[in-house]
Amino acid sequence: MWSVVDLLATSGDITLAWTSPIYSKLYSNDTSINPLGRPITENEDGWIGSLVTIGAMVGPLPFSFIAEHFGRKIGLLCIAIPHIIAYFSMAFATNIYVFYFGRIFGGLAMGGGYTLLPMYIAEVSEDHNRGMMSQTLNIFWAIGNFLPYLIGPFLSIFRPNQLLGRPKYIKSFRLSGHVDYH
């Protein structure tokens, strides 16, 4: 389960840093780069950047409820659902409102992850290695911040979103084995 936890940490911060390499593409007049067919406005730029934080404010509510009633592991695995929805909607977006939708769903997952990941690690790690396990979150959050800057400038808007939205989490569901409901 640790690899899934670290993968969720990385995905959360990829969602946060996603805008930096994508903005230049969305401001482009080139329709082969910009799926909207026109440059975004400054107002749309602001919404794309801020909707993820609005989603992140709401995200802890449903995911903490799921974690409390169905278990932390189930709550963490459920975070994959809005991530997949967010990335795939933005991969195929040809309308600014679809980007807005994707950013809100990415924020929901990010907010849920920032709530459940530290909680899960604190509960499953032993006292002698809790600090080390907690530190893995910081490492994978940093990787999540770095990856969009590393690959974003070289890929279209479609490709990174399509790669990130692949149901990589489905494997996690199959490999998670025993499900602990409380």
Automatic annotation (TrEMBL):
Transmembrane found in the keyword field: yes
Residue runs in coiled coils: none
InterPro entries in alphabetical order: MFS_dom (IPR020846), MFS_sugar_transport-like (IPR005828), MFS_trans_sf (IPR036259), MFS_Trehalose_Transporter (IPR050549), Sugar_transporter_CS (IPR005829)
Major subcellular location class: membrane
Tree of life domain: Eukaryota
Keywords carried by this UniProt record: Membrane, Transmembrane, Transmembrane helix
Domain Major facilitator superfamily (MFS) profile: 1-182
Keyword Membrane: yes
Gene3D superfamilies, alphabetized: MFS general substrate transporter like domains
Membrane topology of this protein: Multi-pass membrane protein
Compartment annotation: Membrane
Transmembrane segments: 47-67, 74-92, 98-117, 138-158
Protein name: Major facilitator superfamily (MFS) profile domain-containing protein
Organism of provenance: Molorchus minor
